[in-house]
Amino acid sequence: MESIVGEIREINRYPVKSFAGERLETCVIEPYGMLGDRFCAFYDESKEGWWRYFTARNNPKMLTYQAQFINGEIHVRASDGRTFGWDEHLLEEIQSQTKTRITMSSIKASHPQPEHPQLLSVDGASILLITDASLKKLEAAWGHSLDQRRFRGNFVIALSDESLFEGDWIGRQLSIGDVQLQVDSFCERCMVITMDPDSQERDPKLLKKLNQEFELHFGVYASVVKTGEIRIGDKVELMD
């Protein structure tokens, strides 16, 4: 038995970790996650594990670069209109903004896919879901309008009943369009959400409010059970 809990309001793809992403009307879900999502990242080779990733925590200006995934290739536009591919010119651009020596991941043009099958550059999970109800609750607590881009969710779900809570989906499956997802865990947030995605201005109060209201949990991670396509307006059904 299935029950409709909402519908897909927004689809977001972030081809490069910590760069701005792109809004989509439809997307393809592969076994590892969304096609073209978090395919690329920058690294600090002096570090290991999660801390190896060079992100907006290290250089907030990275948020000003917009990445798109087009026909298997990464296209990047800087805030001043300059354009880059995923190549040495972009590496030089980001390297010029930090004293940390960085490198970049590679893409096999013949078969584009994430460099890491376990998607460590998506915080160790495949797909990130957030809901309009949680956004509204946090917005009310913070006292300011809240841009969903701070949370970099792949899908924003408009709930059919705002009393529903996405945390209750953990351990269960969702059916969306052709796709089935397994909801695995909460997403625990860090200071990156305190940065305005346009101005990079920080407000630490947002993280404090998130801790008070949600114990730093905002959104849920899901893995792929069945591949297919998801479109704006697709119903989100909770499966028993």
Automatic annotation (TrEMBL):
Pfam families: MOSC, MOSC_N
InterPro entries on file: MoCF_Sase_C, MOCOS_middle, MOSC_domain, Pyrv_Knase-like_insert_dom_sf
PROSITE patterns: MOSC (PS51340)
MF GO annotations: catalytic activity; molybdenum ion binding; pyridoxal phosphate binding
Name this polypeptide is given: Sulfurase
MOSC domain mapped to chain residues: 94-239
